Every structure is written in C-alpha cells, then in structure tokens.
Amino acid sequence: MGLLGAAAVRDGGAALPHGFWAAVRVWLEKPQVANRRLCGAAIEAEGTVPLGEGGEASPPLAAVRAGGSGGGREVRSAGAAELGRLWREVRGQLPAGHGHLPPPLTGWGGPGRRSELRAVLRTLLPRGRPGGPPAPPTKELAVQDVYNGTVTFLPLEENSEGKYQIKKCNIYQIQLTHVKDEEWSLSIVAPFPEDWFSDGIAYPKLAWLGNELLSKLAKWSVEQKPSEFKSTLSLISVAKYSKVYQNLKEKYKEMVKVWPEVTDPEKFVYEDVAIATYLLILWEEERKEKGLTKKQSFVDLGCGNGLLVHILNNEGHSGRGIDVRRRKIWDMYGPETHLEESTIMPGDSHLFPDTDWLIGNHSDELTPWIPVIAARSSYSCCYFVLPCCFFDFYGKYSRRQSKKTQYREYLDFVAEVGSVCGFHVEEDCLRIPSTKRVSLIGKNRIYPPAECALIDKQITQYINNRQTCAVVMCDRRVGFNHKDHSDGSCKEEGSELPKNETETAGTTWMPGFQPREKVVQIRNCASLPRDFVDDVVLNVANLLLNATPAKSCSNMHGGNTNIWNQGESLSLKEVAEHLNKETLKRLKSEYGGLQTLLKNNHQVFEVLNGRVHIRDWRKEKPSRKTKPEVKRHLSAEAFKTRLCWFFIHHPDGCSLPSESCPYAHGTEDLRQSHVIKKKKHLQ
C-alpha cells in the first residue's frame, strides 16, 4: 500500500549514504534534469528545524539561504523566523496529527530522542507551453531526516488569507534503507496514491515517480563523478531567468522563420536569446548592487550574426557589435542595431574607455584578450566571455595539464588571465544548447585604482611569459625547465623576449597576433573539385568491393533472388595505403582528410569506429516519427534529386528497387531540387 517503486542499489565504492543526499540535492535544486517539463527550481529558504519532545516544534536554529538567487548568499534572521513559522503551520496540518507522518511514510526522528530535521522550501518553475504562458509556479517543503534516511515532500497551496496549506493528496517520501553489507534499497512511497492529483508538470504521474525518478536517484546515488563545473545559472535567479527567457523567446521567435544564414536557426536564435536573458538579469542585479539607474553599455567583440547585439539594443542597452566579416542577416536588423565590420587588433587603438561591459560570445582568438582589453579600457569596465574554440594570446592553445580535460584546462587559463588582469573572476554555466556553455565573468576588481599601473605591468609580463613558453615548447630546446605551467610562467635561460617587446610595435600589444580571416576558407572537403571527389569515391569503393573475402547478401526484387556484393570493410589506414601520394597530400590540406571525404559521401560509405564499409541501404532504419518537421520536409524535398551511385557504378546495381531508393535510378527518375534553388536564392 502506497509503495510506488523500489530499487536495489549495490554500493561497492562506499558512496552511500552520502551519495543519496547528493542525489536528493540534485532533485531539489535541478529537478529539470529529471522532469523535462520544469525549467528549474528556486530554493526560497532552508534551515534546520528541530523536532522537540512530544512533537512540538522548536524555533529554527539556522539562518536560511537567499530566496532563489542562486548565489548562496546569507539573508537576515527574519528569513529563518519565517521558515520556522511555516514549519509550525505545516506540522499541525499533517494527516496523522501532532506532527506525525501517515503510514507508510517513515516517521521523523528516533524513539525517545530529539532529532534535527532540515527543511527546504522550494518553488518549482514550469517550462513555457506552446501557444500559451507557463503554468503557475508550485511550492514544496522538503523535510530531510538524516537519522532515518528519508526526505518527505509536502506540496503547499496558498489560501485566500495568504497562508499555506498542505496538498495532502500529493505527499510523497523518498527512503534509503541499508539491507546488509553493500546492499541498499531505495524506494518512493505515497500515503494516498488513490487520491493523487497529476497535472503532468509539477505533479507527475505516480508511475513516473516510481520508475523514472527512482531509477535516476538510484543511479545518481552511487555515481562518484564530481562535476568539473558550477551548477547551471548559479549566479542569478532561476525564477527570474525563466520568466524573462519565455518573454524573449516569444518576442524573437519569428527570427527562426526568416533566418538567412546556413546555420541552424533554432539553435542559434534560442542560444542567443538565452545568453541575452542571462546578461539582462546579471546587469539588472548589478544596477541594484551598485545603485545605478542607467542601463549598462556594451561592445560585443566578434559578434558573428549580431543577434545578441540586436536583442540587447532592443531591450534598452546601448552598444555595438564588431566582427571581421559582415553577415547577411545584419541587413535585417535595421538602423537601431549597431554592427561594424572591422578587424580587432589587441592594442591601444582598440580600447573602450566609455563602455561598461565587453562581451566575448564564442570570440575565438579574441577570448583571452578580452579581460586584458577590459582591464586597460577603464577601471570600471567589466567583461563576459563564453569560450568555445581554444586560443592563446598568440595562436592555438597548447595543452599543459594532462590530468584535466582540454575544456576545463582552457577555462582555467582564461580565468587565470582575468585574475592577472585584476578581476574577481566568477564562473557560471548557461542554459544553452551547446557543449561549451561555461561563462567567465569579471565585474569586480581586486585592486584599488591607484594600482592600475602595477597591474598593467603585471599583464605585460604575463603575456610575454606566455609567448616565451610557446616558443620554448615549439622549439623543444635543451635546458628547458618547467615545473607547473598552470601559472602561465616558465623560464629558460637565454630565451626571454626583449624587455617590453609587446610594446615595441607601438599600439599593438603583440605584433604576431593573427586575427581571423575575413574570407572563411572551406576545408571540409566540400570545395574539392567534383571530378577529384568522384575519382576517390570510385577508387575506394572498388577497393572494398574487390577485397577478399567479399561479403554477399541475398537481395529479393519481385520474387527474384540476387546476390548483392557488400564488399569488405577496411580501416582508414588500410584505405589510405592504397591511394597515391598526390591524392593523400591534397586530402591532408582539408580538415578531417580522407575520413571527412568518405563521410561526406554517405550515400556510398559508412565509417564506423575507424573502419570503412559499403553502405547497404536495405539496412537503413526508417526516419523516426519524432524527427523535426523541418527535417522531414527537407528529406521529402531532396527525394530523387540526385542520381543513385550504386545504380550507375556497383556491379550488382542498387540493392533497393527504384520505388524504395531515395536516389534516382537514371535521369528519367530524377526530380528537380527545390532545396538547391532556395539556397542559391538566399546567397
């Protein structure tokens, strides 16, 4: 009765019971990782609430955390008193009376002893709904009993008098029980399952709690992989972010329909909407902290498509974007959006003394320079960077810490640059559709204005040392001595650059700096001559088809059984050994080389785990029903718009009949491509 689900957990790494409480914390603070219909939770208050003798609640002992700010700041003791008042009200409403929990829930505390409980008041934040506003937020009081290994969730509803009442039908409890040795049991129980109310958002179905949530909690409880990064949106209010994001998403959704670039419109539009949302809230809180009334100004260095600049301008922030290459979409924004086509060379000619914030959103080679430019622009200039590609001051970033992931190491480097420049650097994870979503923020200085000259000298020396290290590592000279490169400094006798070399070029801080090219060179094999590509494809296909032993599969067309040659699979290395030197040399100048060319020709080849196979279209799975509408539309438009390679070149022809093959069996079967026409029109 009331048992929603139970899971046996084997703990061979001594993760429990601490891992259980870590898993509960994830469910409390980031419920959206399990329940996708939520966008997050705001922790309004938390503190210890002792359970006194006879079930009487004592005054709370601890202060509580800031209400959903995400910053973990302490608030005045009035917050603790409010939590204590709420706790006393709630305990009196429990169905079993006198602060007792109804069965089958495990009661709080041990027999004949006082027990401290920890109460967490949270607000669940629903995602926006298509064509309508999001559902209203829901409050819950979660009560953790470490002694018994339980956390009880008490959903709250506010009555007309402004007081909270327990939604008794939706109480549930998560329990951890030690069975023996390494065996534990995790379960979820509800006292009134027959009365459970599910809205499909904050209150999922009981089956979801007993299956989906339980399995995730069991998995998280024994995972001992501490995250390399901070929690998502840890520096701002999740509740405020959710509201502003939904408003901006609705406001700028039309951009998806008119996006003229070749990039994915949904990804780039909603990513920039999310970044703009974050900055708007960050800047609003900064104005409150510093007592500012005027909205902050900004410059986006390497602004790309300029959408972030467009949104920030529209939302009342004066600023501009600068990029080395103009984009087609710039013409769509109008005169209120300020975008400039210009090359940025780190130096005295590219300082922004009247700008409040510098932005580096996937700014590539400018990323490590942005803290430097901000520090030298003015004492009040701040910065926000979202690193993506890995660049040092002088070129591509070289790894120096094998114990870290490359991404983590690069983030530490960019953070170190900010610290050297005198900033208190903060890190936060953004909620964007990208694997590179960690931002670094410098909005406060750690030195007084009188020390600006000293900091500037420190910056110059740091940049010189980074360049010296690069030269030494490249040359691999004898006598190179390094202990730890994490501080960005290394020494080699006789290898130091001339004093103040970064200043010898006048206004340019590093003469060897290479900005990105104005014209993007396509090196993904897409620009190779068609006859060259066709020749390589035919050679590789013949190599696979003639390899021994050849694989053959029966092929039934109209009742006739034919043997269709699948060929043999070879490693990329084996394939490369059969190509001539001129072909290999040409392929090496392209990103990905031979593998990229073969993957580009996916009609003919399949590359799996470093091995090349002839693609058998009979084994291709049909498109899933969940495929996005846009992609389904494009697939339909592309049907029969290209000739079937197998029909023309394979000794056994195509493995599929003409009506089933997505490619044309002969010119009479060929359709005109509307997709190609559309792309040409956009260009």
Automatic annotation (TrEMBL):
Q: Where is this region: Disordered?
A: 49-75, 485-508
Q: Where are the zinc fingers (C3H1-type)?
A: 638-668
Protein's cellular compartments: Cytoplasm
Keywords assigned by UniProt? Cytoplasm, Metal-binding, Methyltransferase, S-adenosyl-L-methionine, Transferase, tRNA processing, Zinc, Zinc-finger
Give the main EC class.
Answer: transferase
From the UniProt record, give one GO term of the biological process aspect.
Answer: tRNA methylation
Please list the reactions this protein catalyses. uridine(44) in tRNA(Ser) + S-adenosyl-L-methionine = 2'-O-methyluridine(44) in tRNA(Ser) + S-adenosyl-L-homocysteine + H(+)
Superkingdom of the organism of origin: Eukaryota
The record's InterPro entries line, in alphabetical order, gives: tRNA_uracil_MeTrfase, Znf_CCCH
Principal localization reads: cytoplasm
A single GO molecular-function term is: tRNA(Ser) (uridine(44)-2'-O-)-methyltransferase activity
Write out the biased-composition intervals (Basic and acidic residues): 485-502
Spell out the family assignment given in the record's similarity comment.
Belongs to the TRM44 family.
Could you tell me what this protein does? Answer: Adenosyl-L-methionine (AdoMet)-dependent tRNA (uracil-O(2)-)-methyltransferase.
Designated name of the protein: tRNA (uracil-O(2)-)-methyltransferase
Organism this protein belongs to? Haliaeetus albicilla (White-tailed sea-eagle)
